[in-house]
């Protein structure tokens, strides 16, 4: 018998993953479908229903206390709706209500994907043991979430900690969000590659123009590739330092595809942070790579479900 058993969904533009997760973050049952991202909203929901159908058919389902959902955003946890940028069929889509119906009326907790990954890193990963942390996902976009005073801090709509849209360059490029000079506009994978190409970097014989290819070139000493990562690191450092100054975090965890670049990113990032995080109460701030990998969204959604269940029942849930 598993205590604190919950169901979790991790919904993105590529895949919809589901799991049954125990109170120690162990994944006991898995289900997955491709996201029909170009289809209408009900077709996308049908794929979610298929994943939930597999989970509800599992012998362990009878012990499930709640469902946690981490979704690509924006999300609105207060309204129970989602409008993922990369799933155009879902705009203000009532995901919580539909999912609750699919799981027989169980409590449902909705958070954004950046917040879900934060919950996972705080519960089981690189931010474990830290009461005040920022966790970031740096990949196609830049998202994030906050842990304050030992608890996940999703904010009223579930989007708090969305560091990708802090402006760090007052006269910078227009960002698709409507602002200018956002962290995401400089530090996301596609923007690292875009800058490198614009400044004269040329891909190798395979023609690969991703941020991973730029990282490989930077490791090999290509000065334009190095400069593109240094610029991204500077933007990230400015955003992290601003966050630390505002809410006194002592660790920043960086995951996502760009986070996997290793020293090409982290060496200039730590150097830039020394220039931006200068006040006495932010100088001890450390920046580390994420640890949770591809299951982070599921584990974080489960953490949110467990925390919600603990709040409703008045029980303590360690580390969530």
TrEMBL record:
<dbReference type="InterPro" id="IPR049874">
    <property type="entry name" value="ROK_cs"/>
</dbReference>
<dbReference type="Pfam" id="PF00480">
    <property type="entry name" value="ROK"/>
</dbReference>
<comment type="similarity">
    <text>Belongs to the ROK (NagC/XylR) family.</text>
</comment>
<protein>
    <submittedName>
        <fullName>ROK family protein</fullName>
    </submittedName>
</protein>
<dbReference type="InterPro" id="IPR043129">
    <property type="entry name" value="ATPase_NBD"/>
</dbReference>
<dbReference type="InterPro" id="IPR000600">
    <property type="entry name" value="ROK"/>
</dbReference>
């Amino acid at each position: 018998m598993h205590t604190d058993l919950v169901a979790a969904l991790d919904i993105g533009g590529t895949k919809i993953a589901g799991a049954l997760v125990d109170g120690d973050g162990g994944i006991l049952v898995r289900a997955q479908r491709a996201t029909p991202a170009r289809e209408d909203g009900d077709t996308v929901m049908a794929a979610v229903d298929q994943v939930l159908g597999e989970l509800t058919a599992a012998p362990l389902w009878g012990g499930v206390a709640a469902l946690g959902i981490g979704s690509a955003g924006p999300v609105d946890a207060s309204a129970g709706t989602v409008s993922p940028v990369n799933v155009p069929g879902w705009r203000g889509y009532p995901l919580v209500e539909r999912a609750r119906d699919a799981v027989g009326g169980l409590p449902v907790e909705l958070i954004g994907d950046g917040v879900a990954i934060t919950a996972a890193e705080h519960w089981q990963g690189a931010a474990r043991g830290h009461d005040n942390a920022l966790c970031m996902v740096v990949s196609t976009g830049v998202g994030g979430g906050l842990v304050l005073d030992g608890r996940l801090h999703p904010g009223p709509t579930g989007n708090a900690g969305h560091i990708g849209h802090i402006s760090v360059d007052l006269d910078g490029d227009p960002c698709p969000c409507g602002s200018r000079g956002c962290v995401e506009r400089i530090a996301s994978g596609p923007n690292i590659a875009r800058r490198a190409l614009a400044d004269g970097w040329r891909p190798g014989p395979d023609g690969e123009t991703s941020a991973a290819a730029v990282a490989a070139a930077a490791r090999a000493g290509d000065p334009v590739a190095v400069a593109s990562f240094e610029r991204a690191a500077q933007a990230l450092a400015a955003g992290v330092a601003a966050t630390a100054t505002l809410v006194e975090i002592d660790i920043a965890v960086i995951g996502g595809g760009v986070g996997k670049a290793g020293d090409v990113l982290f060496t200039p990032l730590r150097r830039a942070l020394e220039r931006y995080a200068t006040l006495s109460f932010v100088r001890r701030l450390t920046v580390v790579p994420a640890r949770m990998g591809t299951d982070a969204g599921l584990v974080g959604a489960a953490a949110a479900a467990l925390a919600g269940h603990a709040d409703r029942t008045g029980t303590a849930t360690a580390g969530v």
